[in-house]
Sequence to fold (332 residues):
Amino acid sequence: MGNLRLTLAVSDYAHTRDLVTGRVKPEGIDLINITQPFESIGLRFGVTQEFDVAEFSLANFCALASQDAPSPMIGMPVFPSRVFRHSAIFINDKSGIRCAADLAGRRVGLPQWSQTATVYVRGFLAHDAGVPLTSIDWVQAGLNEAGRKEPIKLRLPAGIKLTPAPDKSLSNMLASNEIDAAITARPPDCFLQSAPGVRRLFPDFRKEEEAYFKRSGIFPIMHVMVIRRDVYEANRWIVRSLYDAFVAAKDATMPLMRNFQASFLPTAWGPEHFDSVNGMLFPGGDPWPYGIEPNRPTLDPFLTWLHEQGVAARSLKLEELFPPEIRFEVRV
Fold:
């Protein structure tokens, strides 16, 4: 009997590339690889579930898991993308905003209320910066193009004001000061094109993000690897096989990042920078951990915020997100 053939859709990451090239093979599985930008993978899988295994939005995955109907996907605690998001707040200087507290009483745009990056930023605002989310006039619109819609049904809490602007873009509204600020994972065109007065709220965002991590222990997770539910239910063994392969691919990348003999990273002092950053985040530990327990300090508050903000229909426990085959570690 031959191996099971599965399609895998994931962005081009150094720590997953060995799965794509075949250097790492999941036991019992032959992978057909699709490498595309995340926006394409996430949208296609969210609408049609056309891949067997795919990279997906963490917030949208959790939102689907919280609904009454069974989710069409099963999660693995494999997190290919993590990004601190103080860098994701953009302002127009004409608004007079100088700090996070100044966002209270302002019009703030976002591409989707359920975008994972915006969930983390709103969590920071509400729980760290002391800005009530009900104090902001929220506007939802496409980032650079009009017409973007929410992918899931929201259950906004009382007092939240969220107005769709289907015929406008956040970039144009921010440049014209029709909105005072925008929260978005991808920088808007007006910022990239140096529109007058458009800048990040935190110019030295690295400093802010390091301080936030020291206070909270949160290293924001953006994306999660998921399996189509029907594929999982017919082949439950694949969860552990795929998880182990993702771990092996990641672990194979780490020595290359620390290689002083040749430049794996196209930058000076790459290995020193790699060890310096990871020593600050996870001294003596895995600098990019997969699994449930190592990521609890990030995921537990994230799940709380999802429900508080009306993205998740109910409060979720971390263990609910992943199948029993992956809730334990094999030790010899």
Summary: The radius of gyration is 20 Å.
